[in-house]
Amino acid sequence: MTKRYSIAEAWDHLGEMVQEVEAGNTVELARDNRPVAFLLPFEEYERITERKPGFWDSYQELRREFGFDEIAIDPASVFGDIREQSPGRGFSPAAVDARRGSSPGGIGGIDASPT
């Protein structure tokens, strides 16, 4: 449960606020009825300021924990028939220009070809 104190009240109730925090509660300090600060138990402060590992470090830990390197899976045999192997559709700058309504070889009617 969070108790709220105004900044003026906080001067007179510091001992009470510390007891609240020691009991595991959070204390809110407010100025003009708007929160400006919180007092929280030290364990909670440590939890929220602790540096968490990034995605890559977590992924590597997962690989070590479950022995992914020992499994020896060949990605080509698992995923080989999933991806389309063709190079895809062709690209033509003239077709792009025609769709945009500009002249061939140019961008928006400006000739961008090297001279």
What does this structure look like?
By secondary structure, the protein is of the alpha+beta class. It has one domain (1-81): YefM-like domain (YefM-like fold). 45% of the residues lie in helices and 18% in strands. The chain is built from seven helices and five strands. The chain has helices spanning 7-12, 14-22, 42-49, 55-66, 68-71, 75-79, 93-100, and strands at residues 2-6, 26-31, 34-39, 106-107, 110-111. A three-stranded mixed sheet has the order 1-2-3. Strands 4-5 form a two-stranded antiparallel ribbon. The longest helix is centred in the middle third of the chain and has 12 residues, at 55-66. It starts with a strand and ends with a strand. The mean pLDDT is 82.
Shape: elongated
CA gyration radius, whole angstroms: 32 Å
Total individual domains: 1
CATH class: Alpha Beta
Number of strands: 5
Q: Output the strand order for the largest sheet.
A: 1-2-3
Q: How do the helices and strands follow one another from N- to C-terminus?
A: EHHEEHHHHHEE
The averaged pLDDT comes out at 82
Strand content: 15-25%
Count of helices? 7
Q: What is the CATH homology-level superfamily?
A: YefM-like domain
Secondary structure class reads alpha+beta
CATH architecture call: 3-Layer(aba) Sandwich
Helix content: 40-55%
Distance between the termini: 74 Å
CATH topology (level 3) name: YefM-like fold
User: Regions with pLDDT < 50 over 5+ consecutive residues?
Assistant: none
